[in-house]
TrEMBL record:
It comes from the Bacteria. It comes from Salinimicrobium catena. Residues 3-144 form the NADPH-dependent FMN reductase-like domain. SUPFAM superfamilies: Flavoproteins. This is NAD(P)H-dependent FMN reductase. Gene3D superfamilies: 3.40.50.360.
Length: 179
């Protein structure tokens, strides 16, 4: 059994990317999945001056959780066709603790948004940037038009095509992290 760390790139308490993380993490039974709720993490804005004081304890704890996990499931949110400032800030802090903080981590990368592109720009940016820090994106999935395709009350994907896509991606990811 492998340990997987799952989280969204959003600090919103009503994050739709967190809802997607919950849906996907519940589908994985053959591995241990720890889901973080990022809205509970107060992470100060990175700066060179702040860095001289040392990484905040919450960032050190996140770094250790990533380091102690074999794989990651991350769902990135998008603001103005880019990852959120919150998520970029997390990457800035983690990469200063250790440049290759994702070294050899297999990643299931996802995104969703209310729009028809499903956070595709943030997804593509993250695919690129994760490799820079040593991560290996083995699967990815984008859910467009979240509110039309996701049932918030049930926590399920309503659209049959997207449901099949998630099943395929999760199955493939689960198989790839067994290796």
């Amino acid at each position: 059994m492998n340990k997987i760390l799952a989280f969204a790139g959003s600090n919103s308490p009503t994050s739709i990317n967190h809802q997607l993380i919950l849906n996907v993490s519940q589908r994985i039974s053959e591995h241990e999945v720890e889901v973080l709720k990022m809205s509970e993490m107060e992470i100060p804005m990175f700066s060179i001056v702040r860095e001289k004081e040392g990484a905040p304890q919450v960032v050190k704890e996140l770094y250790e959780k990533i380091r102690n996990s074999k794989s990651l499931i991350i769902s990135v949110n998008e603001n103005n066709r880019m990852v959120s400032a919150y998520f970029k800030n997390i990457i800035d802090w983690l990469s200063r603790i250790e440049r290759k903080f994702l070294q050899d981590k297999k990643i299931l990368l996802m995104s969703t948004s209310p729009g028809r592109h499903g956070g595709a720009a943030a997804l593509e940016y993250s695919k690129f940037i994760f490799t820079r820090f040593g991560g290996v994106v083995v699967e990815s999935f984008s859910l467009p038009q979240f509110y039309e395709n996701f049932d918030l009350e049930k926590g399920t994907i309503k659209n049959e095509v997207f449901e099949l896509g998630v099943v395929e991606v999760v199955t493939s990811f689960s198989q790839q992290i067994k290796e």
